[in-house]
Amino acid sequence: MRDVAVIGVGCTEFGERWSTSFRDLFVTAGSLALEDAGVSGEKIDALYVGNMSAGRFVEQEHIGALIADFAGLATNHIPSTRVEAACASGGLAFRQAVTAVASGMEDIVVAAGVEKMTDVGTGASVDMLASAADREWEGFAGATFPGLYAMIANDYMHRYPLTREQLAMVAVKNHENGANNPIAQFRNRITIDTVLNSSMVADPLRLFDCSPITDGAAAVVVVPLERAREFTDSPVRVLASAQASDTIALHDRRDISTLDATVAAGKRAFERSGLTHKEIDLVEVHDCFTIAEICAIEDLGFCAKGEAGKLTADGATALNGDIPVNPSGGLKACGHPVGATGVKQICEVVAQLRGEAAGRQVDAEIGMTHNVGGTGATVVVHILGV
Amino acid sequence: MSVSRFWRKIPQRYNLVGTQCTTCGRYFFPPRSLCPDCRRSGEIVDHTFNGEGTVVTYTVIRSASDQFENTTPYVLAIVELDEGPRLTTQVVCTPEEIEIGMRVRSVFRRIAADGESGTIHYGTKFVPVEH
Ligand SMILES: [Zn+2]
After folding, report:
1. CA distance, residue A57 to nearest chain B CA (Å)
2. A202 and A218, same domain (yes or no)
3. How far is the CA of A239 from the centre of ligand 1 (A)?
4. How many structural domains are present in chain A?
């Protein structure tokens, strides 16, 4: 296997992008990534696109070909593949690109993620997102996606000492970080009261415990490490790529409050990189809900089960803490265009490792990403370093 | 949910019919046709559950998809059947009544409808067991 490096990243602004189409989102992110990498389009060997549900959000399938076409690559006839694992589609697209380069099959590969969510109403998108879980046996009974994470939260709070205020601190911290991220959907600071006074979505989760509905796209360029210096003076190495799966339905999990797929993927990533937790300078985790960040910190092994609430309240996960979590603002503040999120996490870690994160800069040489599909049926973890 | 997709699982949804692997004895609901422990050597037969169980965790859905919007707020829970398997279900009680560890039993209820003139979906919900 060859070592792989990221040589360029690009991300659109995240938000309710009423005037921008699905394909324009992608073209913007792709162009930014190629410009950053100093690579021209005709040099691209292959394309992987993470997308959860263009079929239902914009009634368009066959995304691989569409994206290659509007990226101006139709006449180059490159292989272009759509990758789907619900909210982990982006992380998985990146993993496919890394695998293609590592194997020696391709040299210059673009991994992208795109989701256009605001062309349908809220009720329709709630139903859409529920399809990341088991439609026949969870969705049929009336389970919503926030509802499933709310059941994780209630199980967790029944068993471990997590307070409602500590949970709110996750959102407060992520909004604080998002305020310094120019692509973030929300750049406003909030307080614990903002969270506790927001409307109840699914007890105990309130509106400000939930990531928003977002349009956005992100793209990165990967090449063999040995060729990286042809393009850039600041390549970022892929130190580990890991993926794991679990039962599609939350009710079938070994433990409702532990994402075993996160545990497995995290463990594999540490084993493959030979790194320890102390060596990780920052981590972008999948905080689709505040409780998800709490579980992620623990299941990745940054603290014992039941301790992440206190860790958050003590400021250990803030920008200047021991282990900064979600410097981008996370899914909560930066936004969550489902298929794009996993690639955006890579963009953020690369920006941090290159020292280009301005107001939210962390002193970092090694960073981790954690991307979850559904309630934990797919998890993709990457470790990047300079 | 399309008519055929719903109709296909009517015995399971109406009467809590799941499956059992007679090779290892494990019960499945929602039904599985392949035992994760025995895989191809597992012998799978239908099994009707007695319908009693315990609330493992719950939530109260305040904001739902279009199909369920006019029934909010409703209590959603993961229930562990006495035979072992867990399922996601609505519990017919108030948000104040529901609690982890509560004993419940299955009942036949209307679940949702596909729009105002579409198919009405019936299935299993749970109610608190009277003490
Ligand atoms: Zn068996």
Report:
1. 15
2. no
3. 39
4. 2
